[in-house]
Amino acid sequence: MRILLVEDCAATAERVSEALTSLGHEADVACSIESTAELIARGAYDAFILDLNVGGVSTLEAGEQLRLAGHLVCFASGVDPQSAPSDALFLSKPYTLDGVADMLARLSPLARRTLAFH
């Protein structure tokens, strides 16, 4: 899958990007809401991993817009998953390779269904 990771901590973004790549996926990183919009406009992504708070800005609205448009979205945060929509996928921080692999396993069946309709 081609995944856009939206994470404002550069060190964290690098670790997660490396984990995604080691698991056989292609990852791009956006460190701000503005760069996220630019990358989405330029590329087609199979899934999005959105930190719930990027540069002091909530990504909930953007994530919900992506989900309504049929995109696969996983919210991520070091705070309580209750911050994310109850039906959304959630990845807890600190990120681990096992946590990222588990999240991808949960995304994969959704990806197969979603990509079949495109």
List the helices and strands and how they pair.
Layout (H helix, E strand, L loop, with lengths): L1 E5 L3 H13 L3 E5 L2 H10 L4 E5 L1 E2 L2 E2 L1 H9 L3 E6 L11 E4 L4 H21 L1
Parallel strand pairs: 1-2, 1-3, 3-6, 6-7
Antiparallel strand pairs: 4-5
List the keywords.
118 residues; alpha/beta; Rossmann fold; five-stranded parallel sheet; two-stranded antiparallel sheet; 4 helices; 7 strands; 25% strand; globular; disordered C terminus
CATH topology: Rossmann fold
Rg from Cα: 13 Å
User: Which stretches are low in confidence, meaning pLDDT under 50 for 5 or more residues running?
Assistant: 112-118
How would you spell out the order of helices and strands?
EHEHEEEHEEH
CATH superfamily: Response regulator
Instruction: Report the major sheet.
Output: 5 strands, parallel
CATH architecture: 3-Layer(aba) Sandwich
How many β-strand runs?
Answer: 7
Helix percent reads: 40-55%
Overall pLDDT score: 83
Helix/strand-derived class?
alpha/beta
Strand % is 15-25%
**For the largest beta sheet, what order do the strands appear in spatially?**
2-1-3-6-7
Mass-distribution shape: globular
Q: What is the CATH first-level class name?
A: Alpha Beta
Number of domains: 1
Number of helices: 4
